[in-house]
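ping. complex inputs:
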Amino acid sequence: MTTTDLQDKGPRAVIDPLAPPTVANWQSVGDDPAVRRRFALPRNIKWNVVRENITGYIFVSPALLLIFLFGIFPIGYAIYMSINQWIIRRGVSLCEVPIARGAEPATDPLGILRQCLRHYEMSILGSWNGVAVATLGFTTLFIVYWMWVNAFQKKTNGARLLVGRFVISVILGLALFVAVREGAWDWPVLLVISWVTVAGVFWFSATTHRPRFEETPTPVEQTITRVFRFLIGGAVGALLLVAAVIALVGVVLLLQAFSFAALMAAYVGFLMLLAVLLFFTQDNENLRESGITPRMEQILQLSLRVFGVFILANLTLVTGIGIGLNLLGADLTWPVAIALAYAVLIVLGLLGIPFNTYVLGDDVVRLRGYVFLLLAVFTVIALRGVRLEEQTYHAKQFIDAGLLVVGVVLNAVQWTSLVFFYFGLLLMLVAYRIWVDAFKPDSRRMLARWMVALALLAISFAVISFGWNDMTSDLARRDRLFLRGLEITVYYAFGSIPLQLMLGLLLAYVLFQNIQGKQTFRMIFFIPYVTPAVAAAVVFQRIFTGSEVALMNSFLSSIDAQTYRWVNEPRPFMNVVFGTELTGFMAGPSMALVSVVILGIWTYTGYNAIIFLAGLGGIPGDLYEAAKVDGASQWHLFRYITLPLLSPITFYLSLLGFIGTFQAFNTLFVMRTPSAGGTLDTAGLVIYDTFRDQTNYGVAAAQAIVLFLVILIMTQLQRNVFEKRVFYG
Amino acid sequence: MADATLATRRRALPSLHGAAAMADLFTIVCALVLIVTAVYLAAIEGVLGVNINLAITALAGVGLGLFGLYFPRYSRWSSIVAAVVGLNAILYYMDVYSNACRFNLEMTVAFWVSAVAAGGLFTQVFFSRKLPTLHSRSTSKASTNGDAAKIRSRVATGSIVMYTVMIVLSFIALVPFFWMISTSFMTLGETINRIWVPQEAQVCNYYTAWNSVRFNVYFQNSVIIAVFTITGLLSVSVLSAYAFAKINFVGRNLIFTLVLATLMVPDIVVMIPNYLTISGQIFPIPMSMTNFPFFEIGMGRGFSWIDTLPALSVPFMGHAFSIFLLRQFFIQIPHELWEAARIDGAGHFRFLVQIVVPMSRPAILTVTLLAFIGSWNALLWPLLVTRDPLEWRPISYGLQAFNDEAGTQTHLLTAAAFITIMPMLALYFVTQKSFTEGIATTGLKG
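pong. complex structure:
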């Protein structure tokens, strides 16, 4: 018996390994034979481990319950709300028994649940059954794709594998066919056709996947292969989509009310969710840091590929349908729609945009992935032209529910403004690439490149704003309010954050020097952050009132500057201060919003300064010494040492700042006055008004989700654009 | 025997050296002031006169001062109690002389009594033993790091410019406060003119704001909501953070990632379905009977939590950020400590309560402060889940509603604003170092 045995096994190893366990050599309660009999644990599970797990779950359960109930469940429910039209019957108490006309009150939990929901008239999806079964349909598709990819990766005998895959796909197709219990005659036919095509494509792509060329292919061959792979990828995607559509259709047919627009509605809703999932988990470092094992990461990557294909396929099909409906109206048939979808896919494939990121599994080029969202917006635009007879009402309701709002309304006539808008975005991308390329060390004529990039950027701004104004001029009032809210939020964010950061950095730098009373200054500058937001907003509203005796105006008049009407002034500040006559987005924020921006800067500068101060303390002094030896001045020290080493903090603060300003509510709600004319209504306020005053729950939920997506995109954009510049020493 | 008592008395007297001695000095000064006040008032008004309350207050202050004097270990507590007693005096006198808009003799005396006592407390806090810091890295490096001192220019060059900049900026930072406080002491007529300092301090503004605008209700609501929320939040977060940090259970990392993912979602997305949940429109929620037998915290009517305390506090009790913060702190506790406790027969719960929690006061203090700020600032959620304006709405709503109604009564409005700000400012001054450090380190950790 070595000492390691002693440490591993405990006293029992010393006494006698063959004697039965007695009270003297128990290690834990689980050794008691009576306990073991009672709980019937298998021999190899340690009772201690089980107890540890149970303790862990007990400790975590209250937090998990609360977070699930108030944090995770609401997200799904908000998405569900956003695709429904909620009409609430007033005056009826909820979940009270009895509630339905002439019905018996339910006594079982499920019945009570149904009663609770019954007083909402849901015009689209109809019931929880549909949602549950739709999820089942998607899961089935995912399993199919997984089997396909797995079959690919195992390098076994080709022919046997193909037959096997074919058989699997046919069996699954039949299974789905059986699930379709009633409906129009053409659904089963389309189902079988789709599965046969999918199986054929499996075979086809398997043959093209084997490397044909032993030596390096010529550029022509490479191009041909690429085009071929694009087309195949597109075809695969579209057909997977058709299969998905049909699966979902078969499922939805189980419900009482089926409508095409309902289907589209559910689809686009889920698309947005999946797009969110994609963007959210796009970065590999994120995945690794959160403790996901390699196995899980594989599964996640796989599901990302599946969902990528899925989204792409969905989007193209729906785009095709939209275009077809716009062109043909009610004469559109399924084959034409699928053909149009193929056409869209081919066009996009030839542009090389999203396919080689997701279908073929190349390395994800992040900037290119954003074209996805353009595509989604384009799709939703295309939906606006849906003109089916009795489904028009439902589709219109769904579309008015706000999912459209982020993008654009398109009549048949206004394709031009859409083109302008996207062209402007494209110009902005091109300008960005030129700008970035100009900084490469081997680039020539840097100055010329900068000028070109800046000119392109300016042109792109003009084009985008022209397109945007043109597109949004025809919206319903509610949607126009929300879009205007987004614009105002953008003004607020871009107005306050750069100034906060610069002032905060300046303060931190000065505070870091050896001045007297540093602690007192730190304390003073942190006080604005600590004051309750409502009180600060009230005080600032009174300071910035339009009357001549308000503090700001009396200060301005005492230094003989011009006084303004601040919070009571709805005109844009460019017009008021500089006397121009601009309108629309380029005119800038109103004076009221400028006051709120000043409040934001006042509040957060101290906070930024404290965080920068902590960061400044972390910079090692050897760098400064070495630079001083080389003859660097204070400015050089600041620009080339301090700034780069502070860039993680700057990046983090700006990220946090953008997220915070996009969600800001308290100060804006308090500083809102009727005389500001609605120029302070940021997106959050608009959502609140929709929810509270108009009790339009579905629309409010949709607007909230749109805002969430906008925040997500901004965060990703920031990370993509700036994270390369962040220097993690 | 006389020698012994003299000797003990001499030992019991506080020494007059060092910074801690300043605190004791102030205690002595407080005690002396209170003694003088008591004597003066007793001489003028008579012990059995109308001002017996003030006399009793003064005597209590005297007693506390002497207590602090003879037991220096408790001098801090005694000065705190003296400050509270003094504040009670001023509140009482504001109530009795509520129609007096100017300071009269008794109010002046009461004011100075409490000011001196509060000053004693202030000095105690600043000059006595410092509160434990969360991470000494950030501030100590900033102050004692010899390397980093290299980038500091010499004080002579450009320091005038820097001082000017700092003074101007701090003036800008504090001007709204000056304006608020001075306006809150003005009359209505004075607010219309452009004057900076009022002629006489109109204390009745505060009284009017407190009573006529029903700020007492809102203040009380906010305090109760904050206490409930923080209690629930701390218990839930400490338990789960400990489990994430120290207990190995299946799926721990996955669940933690899921919890953290909820931080990404903006509030507005979650609030709308939460409103529906709270009002019982999604599923029946527990404890929403019309008569809850234990205590009157307004359990719901029918099946909803609208206009009740749980609606305002329960959704904030499960917050991923505090779990994250506490977990980062608990992870630093060495595993040997747990093993030693285990050997002594402690389970996880006992280890947590008796060893981990007392060790992690800085982190818990930071979480409490952040939760208090969040609770005091909350406006959107209370607006959603309350319908009756006077039932459970917090102080942020009260101030905003008063802002809408007040119109031109800026003096009352600023008094109300100051009442709103005061607890936060007081909390900030008392816990200032650990507050700033907590915010700074949460900022760094992201």
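Chain B has 21 helices and no strands.
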